């Protein structure tokens, strides 16, 4: 029997990004790829990202997070999920610790993430500094300028999409800027091809972004390892960074995704802050039978 059988979890979302929060503090178990896929496939626990809370491994941190996509692969960062984790660690009766305040420092495989509560269900996450060099994103070949890389879909003389900006915000991102509503593109068809393009050795999140005002961006995202999602926090951060580098906007914008809005600020100290809501849908426990094939 899987150690996850009968384990309690929270089903949440951040701006529409479907999140499951699982607390494994005090346990040595590490979720396997097969277990993550099983959890993703169950109607009560289906997710875009599974956020697993472990005991801290570094001084002055509150927890270590492992983040899983629906295909069982691990993600380096998830801003929407991190806000949900903060809510769970601060407010959920079974997860909260008495000494905790409205600030948390969480460790991920990509580094430290600081979270600050603004209101009851609104949090700001410091997503850290964007990585902009070709070998940090990473790309398969050198590009001296990652504001626009050579990549396109469609005929050479009339491409449907072309010249994306490339940014790593804990995950690799390619942001294609478009002149019309991103909903008008078949991202469900285009996304898998671009995610797995050879130029991205670790695959990539693919975004279509329309700059609709001096401080507004409309965004749709195909997430690496998860597919089409209603929101992606790291993609919203990457879109603002990419647009700002091209001087299409300043360093602050509201990013509108199908699931809701996120406020992004690329500060002068190079850190990217993301502010947005969380929502608790329900709590449940994993039925043992979902892990029979895991």
Summary keywords:
294 residues, mainly beta, Diaminopimelate Epimerase, Chain A, domain 1, 2 domains, 17-stranded mixed β-sheet, two-stranded antiparallel ribbon, 4 helices, 19 strands, 15% helix
Describe what this molecule looks like in 3D.
This protein has 294 residues and is mainly β. It folds into 2 domains: 8-128 and 278-291, Diaminopimelate Epimerase, Chain A, domain 1; 152-270, Diaminopimelate Epimerase, Chain A, domain 1, CATH 3.10.310.10. Helices cover 15% and strands 37% of the residues. It has a 17-stranded mixed beta sheet that branches. The longest helix is centred in the N-terminal third of the chain and has 13 residues, at 79-91. The chain starts with 7 loop residues before the first strand and ends in a 9-residue tail after the last strand. The relative contact order is 0.19.
Label the CATH architecture of the largest domain. Answer: Roll
Average pLDDT taken over every residue: 95
Q: Give me the number of helical elements.
A: 4
Number of strands: 19
Query: What is the makeup of the main sheet?
Result: 17 strands, mixed
DSSP strand content? 35-45%
Low-confidence stretches: none
The domain tally reads 2
Assigned CATH class of the largest domain: Alpha Beta
